[in-house]
Amino acid sequence: MSKIAVLGASGFVGSTLVEELIAEDVDVRCLIHSSGNAWRLARHGIELKMVDLMNRQSVREAISGCTHVVNCARGKSQTLLKGMSNLLYACEKEKTQRLVHISSVAVYGNQSDSTLVSEDQPASPVKDSYGWSKLQQDQMIARAVKSGLSAVVLCPPNISGPYSLFLDEICKAIQSRSFAWVDGGRFPCPLVDVGNLVHAIKLGLKAEDPDGRRVFISDEKSACWKQVGESLSRILGVESNFQSLTIEEAKEYTQTQPLPAGSVKKTVAHLVSSNVRASLRQDPYIGAVEKTVVGFAKRLPEGIQERLRDDVRKVKSRRNQGDGLALRLVAQQLRNTTYSADRAKAILGYHPIHGYEESMRRFEHFAKLHFGLGSKSYAMLTKLG
Amino acid sequence: MNEKFKIGIIGCGKISGRHVEGCLLSPNVELTGLVDPVLERADALARGYGITPRVSDNLADLIDHVDGVVIAAPNNLHRPLALQCAESGTHVLIEKPIAGTSADGLAICEAHERAGTICTVGFVTRFRDNNRNMRELIQNQYFGETIEFAYQFGSRGGWAPLSAYNLDKSATGGGVLVVTGSHFLDRMLHWFGDPSEQTLFDDSLGGPEANALATFRFANHGLNVCGSARFSKTVALPAGIVVKTEQGMVFLADAPNAPIRFRPHNESIELHVSLETETENVFQAQIEDFAAACRGEHAPAVSGREGLRSVLLTEKLYQKRFPLADSVKRASLHTIEDGVHE
């Protein structure tokens, strides 16, 4: 009878995995670092066990009695490295039958113009980066495999689907008008739906004779950034007429510190008091609309006019939130990279269960549930700023 | 009046640090004791602020040395602790909510009423000047009659008490609606009164809900207002309220010194109401309000009975709850009764 320990159970991938496992009545032990992030799991009324990855004994006790271990834990570099060392020690002592570890394509660093990266491509992350720490983890596992550990290392690109932080990041960039395409959005945007990744984890738990080497897990067909931008714009109900940078512009943009755009004032703060109006007139834009503003203010009841005179302390002009582009998303487009899942198909029997359109529908449904997307209150609250 | 009001803090978890700061900032109170069943936590809290109050794992050791206490323990412990204080004639400021259940909350109120001691509830956002002014502006219809409002507050996780009691439904009395939502429910009741109808959509599958959407209708005292409040512990939602009035939209972000913004209908301008005063430290304001109430200078900002209202509303919401997925279904069918959804 197998029992699966999930480290990092409260994270995005861990929670999705646990929810599927408990729905399938699988015996699972949820291991978490802190109660603060564990609400998604706690709502099921299941037992959550705290583990300190930095403490060897804590890790060993946490996985004791479990036949299989899935490591979805994240953290700072020190936690990743010391935590992996402790986990491998615990797996050896507890005679773990299978370790499935979630790596990342970040181990390959910022590859560019590698239209099809295979697992054998040299990994070259910047030292001490997140990708570097993940690479160290992979190498530690490879050494443990030589000593007899049975392990599967899954290597996903950006993860999409319900609860996707990556799609949420793009949505926020779209809403704040900081999202831009590079070269019309023609570059690939490699994704894996979290449901596909969880499917791969479950295959990894029962794969025969895995070799412990990295395996890419991606969706069947890579979407391009234009497609992703348009899909999310449709979901958000906004136009997808994004700014497009040339490759040269994008390279320059990512290599220099982005400067905020000039004084674009979409909204105007206003006081009724005459001395502040005088200072406002010095701003040409405010000066132009002052007449309208004062006209409106004069229509307010006398009480509120007095109140505003008495209470208002200062005038603020608000900078357009769209100033500056989402740097990380621009840099990602320049990678121009896709990741083949051929090896996963051969070794794990992996075939993605969610296609691109379905994955986006799953995200849309999630957004309706959790953000209230499409509701009247959502429309009101988007103006909150 | 020259003597400082002696305060003890019961429960030395994460929120207690804010209360210690409030005490240290105030010239009118003196922090004389810390109590926690895990004595190391009380010691660590004292060390962290370089203070030397009386430290104990037992309330009885402290009770004769204080004029009033802050109860910052898990919600299900509020009742026994508050009752012990009432028996000894000690005033209490109870971290929100007053209790996990209305029965416990009522027992606390009655015990302190019998003892003639002050019982106040730590709804600290009431002390923000922008919230106070927003209430006044809304209630006085400065921007015209209120038609509807929408509120949200969401974070990916966050607040992790040292005891991890936040995920224990029996200790908190609920999920995100209690842990996150009680502040807004209290303010909403303070602004609009008790709703005539309320409905809850949440994602609980046996444990404490992580996401909740509450809808309300206020059809009392001449009001005809509907509203919604969304709370999440799984997604980040910019916190704040948007109120639609006859004259326009009023915006207030849920932050200590955020301005009240008003955008008139059919106008492309926006008025910002910023105030002369800025809230310095709401925990200081709260502890001074408590001390002044105990000295008989004025009633506390949030009495026990006032604090009890949000617990009663929470219980009503839990009694009429639907799966969160139903909120989307109803929205898509254009049939939601409160009109919050399109």
List keywords for this structure.
heterodimer, A: 385 residues, alpha/beta, Rossmann fold, 7-stranded parallel sheet, two-stranded parallel sheet, 16 helices, 13 strands, 12% strand, globular, B: 342 residues, Dihydrodipicolinate Reductase, domain 2, 2 domains, 9-stranded mixed sheet, 6-stranded parallel sheet, 33% helix, 25% strand, disordered C terminus
CATH superfamily of the domain at 4-163 and 191-220 and 337-356 in chain A: NAD(P)-binding Rossmann-like Domain
The percentage of residues in β strands of chain A lies in 5-15%
In helices, the fraction of residues of chain A equals: 40-55%
**Beta-strand content bin of chain B:** 25-35%
Describe the structure.
The complex is a heterodimer of chains A (385) and B (342). With 385 residues, chain A is an alpha/beta fold. Among the domains of chain A are: 210 residues, NAD(P)-binding Rossmann-like Domain (Rossmann fold, 3-Layer(aba) Sandwich); 38 residues, no CATH class. Chain A is built from 16 helices and 13 strands. Chain A has a 7-stranded parallel beta sheet, sandwiched between helices. Chain A has a two-stranded parallel sheet with strand order 7-10. In chain A, α5 links the parallel β5 and β6. In chain A, α1 crosses α7, α4 runs parallel beside α5 and α9 packs across α13. The longest helix of chain A has 17 residues. With 342 residues, chain B is α/β, with parallel strands linked by helices. Chain B has 2 domains: 142 residues, Rossmann fold, CATH 3.40.50; 171 residues, Dihydrodipicolinate Reductase, domain 2 (2-Layer Sandwich), CATH 3.30.360.10. Chain B is built from 11 helices and 15 strands. In chain B, the strands form 2 sheets. In chain B, strands 14-13-12-11-7-10-9-8-15 form a 9-stranded mixed beta sheet. Chain B starts with a strand and ends in a 9-residue tail after the last helix. The C terminus of chain B is likely disordered. Chains A and B meet through α2, α11, α12, α15 and α16 of A and β7, β10, β11, β12 and β13 of B.
